[in-house]
């Protein structure tokens, strides 16, 4: 089953695929790179039934999982902005639960990174930056640029090409934890966790 517009988010943008169901059949969304569509495939051994064009179906998304992934993905943006404010360059990221991290490189040596105390000082600077961004509740918006890339904006704080799921504003994030950063193979690794604040 291929659709031009799909409610399910496939794995990509550094985050896992949505979990969901179509007419009670559990599916796994995946991107068909040839067609450019998101395709829903059966999550089990049995194939999906043949659906017809125009047929009404019930579609459900595991909202708890979606909110978890969106919170982790969105939290990566202010952390990236905080690292850039330290003079670091974004190098890599992943937003999977239990593995979420942003990695940076530094064009110039940062003496703080040479000692445990300095690394904690640098991490505290990131925490302060992120906490301020959350308190200001910057809206999360997006638009397509002239090249067709989806650009996500955090008000005037940060903009980056991004295809993941996001919360509506940074105030939707809670319990963001940044353990003391690590330096491995020349990269500054900032691990983190975050959750979606409950809707009112």
From TrEMBL:
<dbReference type="InterPro" id="IPR051335">
    <property type="entry name" value="Alanyl-tRNA_Editing_Enzymes"/>
</dbReference>
<protein>
    <submittedName>
        <fullName>Ser-tRNA(Ala) deacylase AlaX</fullName>
    </submittedName>
</protein>
<dbReference type="GO" id="GO:0000166">
    <property type="term" value="F:nucleotide binding"/>
</dbReference>
<dbReference type="InterPro" id="IPR018163">
    <property type="entry name" value="Thr/Ala-tRNA-synth_IIc_edit"/>
</dbReference>
């Amino acid at each position: 089953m291929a659709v031009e517009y799909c409610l399910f988010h496939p794995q990509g943008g550094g985050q896992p695929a949505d979990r969901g169901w179509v007419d009670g059949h559990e599916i796994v969304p995946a991107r068909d790179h040839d067609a450019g569509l998101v395709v829903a495939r059966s999550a089990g051994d049995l194939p999906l039934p043949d659906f017809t064009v125009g047929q009404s179906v019930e579609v459900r998304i595991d909202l708890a999982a979606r909110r978890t992934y969106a919170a982790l993905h969105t939290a990566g943006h202010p952390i990236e902005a905080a690292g850039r404010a330290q003079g670091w360059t974004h190098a890599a990221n992943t937003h999977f639960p239990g593995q979420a991290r942003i990695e940076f490189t530094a064009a110039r040596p940062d003496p703080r990174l040479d000692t445990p105390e300095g690394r904690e000082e640098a991490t505290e600077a990131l925490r302060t930056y992120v906490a301020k961004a959350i308190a200001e509740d910057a809206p999360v918006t997006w638009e397509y640029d002239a090249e067709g890339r989806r650009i996500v904006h955090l008000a005037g704080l940060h903009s980056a090409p991004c295809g993941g799921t996001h919360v509506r504003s940074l105030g939707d994030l809670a319990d963001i934890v940044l353990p003391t950063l690590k330096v491995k193979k020349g990269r500054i690794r900032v691990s983190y966790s975050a959750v979606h604040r409950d809707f009112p």
